[in-house]
């Protein structure tokens, strides 16, 4: 069994799990039956995990969203979709491996699926640029979405990026134009778009593939205009105040649902998606199916009208200031 990686606030759980592993080793190496003790400790660990995860701070949720063992786009593609055929290149410059996508089937129906892909080890992280896409990545995504529109296929996108790559080469190839073009084109794409924030939803790098008819968000994912570290560096001139920035930004799923910026929160297994990726995929598949059913039968005009109204509703508020008291 692969060794679990625990975050700093999960250390009490790590200590319990270590004791459980020691007892399992003892039971294997001797004739002593201590299965009851192991079961009791297992239940205690499960309850402790529930208790810790019931009162997470936005900064702790950010750490979970970035967990190295968290499922990525291709993990969900393997579990949720069938007949996946990856498509490569933007037909202009290169094939950006930080965004993957291609044709697939969802519940037997043809579709287009695409999303950010981070790497598992040092070599793959370098190849996929830590999930930070360059312009050719967003242009590849747009090419795939326009292909889906041509053949009247729904589009499923998965967002997991710290943000678009800010390097000089990306700026030379018009990073901002590529992101802006995607947002513009997705707003008027004549097929259903279902987008899911599965980890980090960072800034324009996330928006470039998340203009959608239904936006889902995993329970312990984050979605923000800037990373907490970036925000802290701007406001307080130090990234050490990232925790304060995370509290102020309102980046968690429940906060964004309350603001009407996302449609549905998808529950994660106890301890996060990385503790049970297969169960997480089952939860997400059910949520995607529900979301798709809501838009699958809409005609193109109705789809576009609803999407436009949705985009125009962002940022609306009610002035609750009390009327001045009569003189």
Largest sheet: 8 strands, mixed
CATH domain class name of the largest domain: Alpha Beta
Q: How would you describe the shape?
A: globular
CATH architectural arrangement of the largest domain: Alpha-Beta Complex
Q: How would you name the oligomeric state of the polypeptide chains in this document? A: single chain
The secondary structure category is: alpha/beta
Radius of gyration: 22 Å
CATH topology title of the largest domain:
2-enoyl-CoA Hydratase, Chain A, domain 1
The proportion of residues in beta strands is 5-15%
What's the domain count? 2
Distance between the termini: 75 Å
Low-confidence stretches: none
Q: Could you spell the SSE succession in H and E letters?
A: HHHHEEEHHEHHEHEEHHHEHH
- The strand count comes to 8
Q: Please report the number of helical segments.
A: 14
CATH superfamily of the largest domain: 2-enoyl-CoA Hydratase, Chain A, domain 1
Mean pLDDT: 91
Proportion of residues in helical segments: 40-55%
């Amino acid at each position: 069994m692969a060794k679990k990686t625990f975050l700093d606030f999960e250390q009490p759980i790590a200590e319990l799990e270590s004791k459980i592993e020691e007892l399992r080793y003892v039971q294997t190496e001797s004739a002593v039956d201590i299965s009851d003790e192991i079961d009791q400790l297992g239940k205690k660990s499960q309850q402790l995990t529930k208790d810790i995860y019931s009162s997470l701070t936005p900064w702790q949720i950010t750490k979970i969203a970035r967990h190295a063992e968290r499922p990525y786009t291709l993990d969900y593609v393997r579990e949720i979709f069938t007949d996946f055929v990856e498509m490569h290149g933007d037909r202009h410059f290169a094939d950006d491996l930080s965004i993957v996508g291609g044709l697939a089937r969802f519940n037997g129906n043809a579709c287009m699926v695409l999303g950010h892909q981070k790497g598992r080890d040092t070599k793959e992280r370098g190849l996929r640029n830590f999930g930070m896409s360059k312009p050719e990545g967003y242009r590849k995504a747009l090419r795939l979405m326009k292909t889906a529109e041509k053949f009247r296929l729904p589009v499923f996108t998965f967002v997991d990026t710290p943000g678009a790559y800010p390097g000089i080469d990306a700026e030379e190839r018009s990073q901002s134009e590529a992101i802006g073009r995607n947002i513009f084109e997705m707003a008027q794409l004549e097929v259903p778009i279902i987008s899911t924030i599965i980890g980090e939803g960072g800034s324009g790098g996330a928006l470039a593939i998340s203009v959608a008819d239904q936006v889902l968000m995993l329970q312990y994912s984050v979605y923000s205009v800037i990373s907490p570290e970036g925000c802290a560096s701007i406001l307080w001139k130090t990234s050490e105040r990232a925790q304060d920035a995370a509290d102020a930004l309102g980046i968690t799923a429940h906060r964004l649902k309350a603001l009407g910026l996302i449609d549905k929160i998808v529950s994660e297994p106890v301890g996060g998606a990385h503790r049970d990726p297969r169960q997480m995929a089952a939860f997400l598949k059910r949520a995607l199916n529900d979301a798709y059913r809501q838009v699958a039968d809409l005609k193109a005009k109705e789809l576009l009208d609803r999407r436009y109204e949705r985009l125009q509703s962002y940022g609306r508020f009610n002035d609750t200031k009390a009327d001045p008291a009569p003189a």
